[in-house]
Amino acid sequence: xxxxxxxxxxxxxxxxxxxxxxxxxxxxxxxxxxxxxxxxxxxxxxxxxxxxxxxxxxxxxxxxxxxxxxxxxxxxxxxxxxxxxxxxxxxxxxxxxxxxxxxxxxxxxxxxxxxxxxxxxxxxxxxxxxxxxxxxxxxxxxxxxxxxxxxxxxxxxxxxxxxxxxxxxxxxxxxxxxxxxxxxxxxxxxxxxxxxxxxxxxxxxxxxxxxxxxxxxxxxxxxxxxxxxxxxxxxxxxxxxxxxxxxxxxxxxxxxxxxxxxxxxxxxxxxxxxxxxxxxxxxxxxxxxxxxxxxxxxxxxxxxxxxxxxxxxxxxxxxxxxxxxxxxxxxxxxxxxxxxxxxxxxxxxxxxxxxxxxxxxxxxxxxxxxxxxxxxxxxxxxxxxxxxxxxxxxxxxxxxxxxxxxxxxxxxxxxxxxxxxxxxxxxxxxxxxxxxxxxxxxxxxxxxxxxxxxxxxxxxxxxxxxxxxxxxxxxxxxxxxxxxxxxxxxxxxxxxxxxxxxxxxxxxxxxxxxxxxxxxxxxxxxxxxxxxxxxxxxxxxxxxxxxxxxxxxxx
Length: 555
Prior knowledge:
mainly beta; Glutaredoxin; 16-stranded mixed sheet; rod-shaped
């Protein structure tokens, strides 16, 4: 029994505790110690004037921290308890089995309330009750000392401890690690430790069009997994079917982020975000060296420059960039092939014309060697975002006018055999006004059968000799996007074939193509007048077809 008299305290600091010298100082015969069942008690909340009862915290693990404001050891332990125990378990959503934790500071000093309030503020406590008579303190006090810490299980269906059982009763602060371990010793009827991620998914880089494999390792029983796209904790984009510790994506076309949530009945654990950077390799196959990337042109375009170093190369373009590959044609003009948008393009130099790399004899450009040959090009996977051009480097288009020796003559048009477009849904446009397609065998010209061209197709000329078959073939539904100078345009040529062959211009007779013949300039500023179209035209089946032509001179 406790005799209730006014309490006065005298602190005697010894061995890590503050000893209380009480005026009445009669303690109950047997304190409620570890393993005993705590009785309920009711005390006033210091700051709300509401009454607090221990049993109101049913379903929680309760930590009682008995203190007085003048206790130096209390001033050290209470803030640590709030920071490294209460906040620690708040962040986790409870102990490792998901049971919520609540610390309760119990003040047993009635005097100097302002100093008590300062103590509470410094501790960062949110739930404080007053035990001025010391009744609750002496329910648990094993010695007449503070601080005293009591951990009580308030969970009704725990198999580790009875409900309201004292889990730990310590005179003096045993440290946050000890307190966490004791709190984590309370579990429910089925013991599931909260998952803990031991190996995070790793950020990595892949090339466009390739998958990536991400994995996570976690401790715990009966784990389930769900991967998400995006940055943690955004759970709006679950990856369908990604419910294992390892996830392999589909082919990636853009940089992405992923994270995974690991779950069992003990709780959840979220991984860090893994950033997957998707890079776009310029050179896919063949022989080429990258001369420069992210080159800002005065016209605002961004170029990635590749130098062809062998007979063939397959390339693609980065999003928003133009890939340019360079070599020399048979006239020793430097030829530029430019490509942007979806798909890939392959440049192959004819083996009979191929020459090893050398300095360009018609240009002032030391230190750069170009292979030589007559090119053919194959485009695959294009769509309406794809644009393509071929031209020679000349005074009309070069930024650096010092490239050109005084009086040097140039062919000033790119010599090309064939451009094929396959496995494509369309193209935005093709600028071939500075290119002449020629050859003496097989198909020559442009074969884009079934591929509609959205804006325009300009061609310098096509001239078949021998048994070559000239093509100027593209899909129906072309040239439907309104733009300046739209449609099919022959720029400076007349389409007259040396071998007298008709130009294949349509897949079937029902198509009614039309074209415009207009003037142009070669890349060295040589003017090319508008010529009358001298060709005859056929379908793929060889049936004659009428092509409407218009002659136009642009001033």
